[in-house]
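Researcher: Let's try something more involved. This one mixes different molecule types, so please make sure each is placed in the same coordinate frame as the others.
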Amino acid sequence: MNRLALAASTALITLAAFAADDPKQRQDLTAVIALQGKPCGEVVSYVAKGDNDFVATCKDGNKYRVFVKDGRVVVEKQ
Amino acid sequence: MIRISLLIATSLLAAACGSVAPPPPPTQAKAAESASEVPAKAAPPAPAKPAAPPKSSPAPKAPAKQQPATPPPVAAAPPLDLRTLEQRLKDSDAIGVMTKLSLKNQVDDLVAQFRTYHQGQRPPTLPELRRPFELLLMKVLSLLQDKDAALAHDINASRDAIWGVLADRDKLAKFL
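Model: All components are placed in one shared frame. Result:
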């Protein structure tokens, strides 16, 4: 029972880490999306899916996957 | 007789000048007044002497003040070394990692367009490349200006130097 609770809490902590809300990262994603000329306004939240791979939610409701592929930053509308 | 009357006139004028002289201590006012009034009254010998120093003194003072005022702009803001600029941009905390990478992508794309131009292909022409160059520079400046104003200022000061490198095939080749 204790082991199960520990595993569950670890999973929750890991999930929280991936969905971390670092203001610097939000600003970075906002800037990247703006640089690509996509409508967004401001990133209000994001989920990290991996290294340099994010799904960003914008203030205007748009969602973008922002990731790096072959040394290029790609912004894909979700 | 003439000498006596001249002496009296001189002393009277000197007394008159003594009572008038205290009010205009500012040299500029004196100069203005002397320029407009004294020449007309300059005939009497006595006022000519006190009026002469203010006339001559403001004239050399004005250029002396102007000379030190002009040199600073000449020496100010030397264009930034582009290698240093690149390194400072990489090191700046004002821009996030993803943004830097995205900017680098756009710089690489622009440089590729300049290489196409230098290979002799048309379009793009040089005037056509000026607009994307300015646009990219504005993006960089807008990202930097709030958090790294010094770097933004230096990049802006180097605008022509950067364009000079991009527009010149030999200079660009040295940077690639």
